[in-house]
Amino acid sequence: MTAHWQKGGVDARDCCTATGEFIKRARDWMRRHGYRLGWAWVQEYGQGYGAHAHMLLHVPPELAPLFAPMPLRWAKDILPGAYIKGVIDTKPIRGASSAYSEPDLYWANLRTKLHYMMKAAPPELEAVLGIQGWGDKPWGQYCTVHGKRAAEAQWLRKPG
After folding, report:
1. Spatial CA neighbour of 16 closest among 70, 52, 47, 56
2. Domain boundaries, the chain
3. Start and end of every Replication-associated protein ORF2/G2P domain (predicted)?
4. Phi/psi of residue 41, each to 5°?
């Protein structure tokens, strides 16, 4: 999903806070439904989009229909004014609904999203994620962001 925070009236300096609040709401929602949320996000600033965040949120297929309306609800609560169409853009990763029956399709599309989000990742990290050598990513590598550029659920990290 992409949250076009600045388009929705959030100051570019506050987009990291808005993304953090969004993730907190998603994490709390998942916890109430008996799951832990796996997530990662990256902040960017684009000429046409302003300050925005790309997010990956892992929602189990059985919760997807219940989860679907929540991002819009949370964004409306977080934005300083009225919701503007297009601030939240959600798209499930191709193959997500059949991840158990078609894991190759799901993982190929997840890696494509990671490749897009990790524009300035070092080759060593790309290798760990299986996206090394996928080509140059000239878009978005040199934009100014305020606060953290990226974050992920800490419990997803391997110790050591």
Report:
1. 52
2. 2-102+138-154
3. 20-63
4. -145, 160
